[in-house]
Design a protein that fits this description.
Blueprint: H1 12-17, E1 25-28, E2 31-34, E3 41-44, H2 49-62, E4 65-69, E5 80-92, E6 106-108, H3 114-124, E7 140-144, E8 147-158, E9 161-169, H4 178-192, E10 196-202, H5 206-214, E11 217-229
Parallel strand pairs: 3-4, 9-10
Antiparallel strand pairs: 1-2, 2-3, 4-11, 5-10, 5-11, 6-7, 7-8, 8-9
């Protein structure tokens, strides 16, 4: 990559939705977002007024939307900032950390599992997860006594990289190393396809971040997740950051 050229991970949502995942995108002019049944994330070609107006149209049409950029995004006219959160973008080292063999009862989840996956995500809140989120990539899970106890899978696809996402474990089954085993299995599949695993995590999620570091992930850069909505008429608007 030439000097001064933007790395595709610098603007991950834009890179995904104008590249490998264009097929699950909704686009309006210079703004693009995941289909609302698939994901929450959006991006614009630039920070110009026309691009932000296109983004506002997407938010009004499809509901709450989040941007993951190098800095907080100011709300375009007519929108409100719901939240801002510091995030870490982490990329796996060339060789992941060890940890013993991955458990044998990890299974690939299929569309018949999607309702149970959604229920698991609803119970554990691993991040934005919608009805068709599992269609973004391969998800793996572990069942204990017939119950989906834990899962992990793939979300954003960026040229050369795939995001580990949807990592969650029901409280009664935590502390057994399920998340670590599932992440290692997800990463191995990505490596086999010639892709580098990466992920996004809240900076405040220190417990999970320690696990990611133990599995070989290293912080590449800090980003900000800004969530926008279109308030109901009469609601007070919140000013966004610059």
């Amino acid at each position: 990559m030439g000097e001064g050229m933007e790395h595709p991970l610098d603007r991950p949502v834009w890179s995904a939705l104008t590249g490998p995942q264009a097929g699950v995108a909704v686009r309006a002019g210079a703004a693009v977002r995941y289909h609302p049944d698939v994901g929450l994330f959006a991006a614009t070609a630039d920070a110009g007024a026309d691009s932000m107006a296109d983004l506002a149209g997407l938010v009004r049409a499809h509901g709450e939307t989040a941007l993951v950029e190098s800095r907080a995004v100011a709300a375009p006219p007519g929108l409100a900032v719901v939240s801002e959160a510091a995030c870490l973008q982490m990329v796996a080292a060339e060789t992941e950390a060890g940890g013993g063999p991955v458990r044998a009862d990890i299974a690939t989840l299929s569309p018949t599992d999607w309702p149970e996956m959604a229920a698991l995500a609803q119970a554990t809140r691993p991040g934005p997860f919608f009805a068709r989120t599992p269609g973004l990539g391969r998800f793996l899970g572990v069942r204990i006594d017939g119950r989906l106890a834990a899962m992990a899978g793939e979300r954003m696809r960026i040229p050369g990289f795939t995001e580990v996402s949807g990592v969650c474990t029901l409280p009664p089954f935590r502390g057994q190393g399920l998340a670590a085993d599932l992440i290692r299995a997800v990463m191995a599949a990505m490596r086999a396809r010639g892709e580098t695993p990466m992920l996004h995590t809240y900076a405040s999620n220190t417990g999970a971040n320690r696990l990611y570091e133990a599995l070989g992930f290293r912080v590449r850069r800090e980003l900000v997740m800004t969530t926008l909505s279109a308030p109901q008429p009469g609601a007070e608007l919140v000013r966004g950051g610059g």
